[in-house]
Write a structure and sequence with these properties.
The protein is α/β, with parallel strands linked by helices and 317 residues long. It is built from 10 helices and 15 strands.
């Protein structure tokens, strides 16, 4: 039987177009667990859609952490009472959610709900981007947007994999934050060209686009890879094609997370790895804001206005 739960819904008449409303939680499929959500985190993509494009009634939300209330009927997945982190295509910002068991992972006791909630989109994106570089031990890796949610985690993951990691930020105010994640290797400058003297790089992870992508494509070592996954600066990039192909074996890879999760590896596998890294002290999410989910509109607007670095986590009452 369906039940009513509160969820964040796009409402054209609400502050910042987001409001808590009563919605119907449909019965779970055989391979779904029902989770009582305790924490959610915000990502720029879903937030931009909710505040600027989505039709009224749409339910945003990708990342959640919580406790399993109902086990999957097919016997898969975690047992009732297990703390979990999970990922949905939409609708995760709710009191309760139904989620496929392959998209959740059990949490170690040492990992808080807030830490876990930062992992699904930002952590998995960083993980899949770095995997495009193969073995990173002893390799040079460059991460732009290194103070952001994806970039900050990517720096730490690459460092844990044995890479020599440089993080780029445009803001002097973020120098210490990035340096901590990169073992002191930080590049501050108005564009990614500031990192060229540190190269060439085996792997470059670009979440900025525009001039950053243009520069990245000409800073690769032979057989190097540039992974592009965002366009916060711009949708168009121009580059010196000879400098790209003449290096030899260089590659540009476009990454969209939900494609990776369907074609490469299910979300639960990566989430379990990321949670274990937090428990082991090798990964530390940067949580800039913690607030009750009743403040969703205010926090969402601050995120789009780039009012903070790192992640925002909201606790579900």
């Amino acid at each position: 039987m369906a039940r009513q739960v509160r969820a964040v819904v796009v409402d054209a008449g609400a502050a910042e177009r987001l409001a808590l409303r009563s919605v119907e939680l449909a019965p779970a499929a055989r391979d779904e667990v029902v989770v009582r959500v305790t924490a959610i985190s915000l990502n720029r993509g879903e937030t931009r859609r909710a505040l600027t494009m989505a039709q009224p009634g749409w339910r945003p939300g990708w990342d959640f952490a919580g406790v399993v209330e109902d086990e999957a009927a097919d016997g898969s997945g975690p047992r009732r009472g297990t703390r979990v982190v999970g990922l949905l295509p939409s609708g995760a910002w709710a009191e309760r959610v139904a989620c496929r068991t392959h998209a959740v992972a059990a949490l170690p006791d040492a990992v808080s709900d807030a830490q876990a909630a930062t992992l699904p989109v930002a952590g998995l994106t960083a993980l899949h981007a770095l995997r495009q570089g193969g073995l990173l031990l002893g390799r040079k890796v460059l991460i732009d947007g290194a103070s952001g949610g994806v970039g900050h985690l990517a720096c730490q993951l690459a460092l844990a994999a044995g890479a020599f990691v440089w993080g780029h930020t445009r803001s002097e105010a973020h120098r210490d934050l990035v340096a901590e994640a990169c073992d002191g290797r930080v590049v501050v400058g108005p564009n990614l060209e500031a990192a060229r003297p540190r190269g060439p790089f085996h792997l470059i992870v670009d979440s900025v686009g525009g001039s950053a992508l243009s520069a990245a494509l000409t800073m690769l070592a032979p057989n190097g890879t540039c992974v592009t996954l965002g366009v916060s600066e711009g949708n168009t990039a121009t580059f010196e094609s000879r400098n790209f192909f003449s290096t030899g074996g260089t590659r540009l890879y476009g990454l969209t997370l939900f494609h990776e999760l369907m074609s490469v590896e299910r979300a639960g596998v990566g989430l379990a790895l990321l949670a274990d890294l937090i428990a082991a002290g090798k990964l530390k999410p940067r949580i800039e804001i913690e607030a009750p989910w009743t403040e969703i509109g205010t926090v969402a607007r601050r995120l789009l206005d780039r009012g903070f670095a790192g992640k925002a986590v909201l606790h579900v009452a």
